[in-house]
Amino acid sequence: MHRLKNLSKKIMAMILAAELIAAAGMVLDILYTVYLTRQNARLQKQAEAIAVDLVQNQIAGEVTGTAKRTKKTGADLIEKAYVRRIAKKAENLEYVPASTDTNIGASEVYDIVQSAYSYSGGRLSRSSGTANGPNGKETYYNLNMSGVVRTMRGMGNTDAYWERKDGCKMLGNYIMVAANLSRHPRGSIVKTSLGLAIVCDTGGFASRNPTQIDIATNW
Asked: Which residues cross the membrane (predicted)?
């Protein structure tokens, strides 16, 4: 009986020891988890501090290194937007005022406007006398345009009159043409085989052929 009691005590002691070991293990797990959490938080703060420092240094370096480029890039973007805006208006046959340059034909605005449209068919020439352009029949005429220019001035057009190398009479960015004013009112922008044109005049032909375009030239 005495031996049985001693054995029971030993078993109880072993069970208690096992429970204590298990409890200690749980405590250690908890402490280790807390340690890892704190370590992760500390490491995260360090990483954030390093990242902020790197970003600040990067920004400082880029600001120093690209200050000159920034001004140029901004100017380039403005220039591109300006070109796109003019080209879009020209493509939509909207009037674009001419540059104030004395040589309109060499101006950027003129190049943008006339480059917005091209015609792949036959072109009107002095020798041909007539052509089938994008709006139909095209002819040419050579008259003093001072009265026509005065009429356009009365409508508010202030673009300079000039003559292109190929002989077309120009008002600003556009070839001067006569057309049926019911179909194309004065100031309208129309397509021709020689480029974009502005309707400034009309003639007897307009009643016979309302789609005909008569192009002003010095031929």
From this structure: 12-35
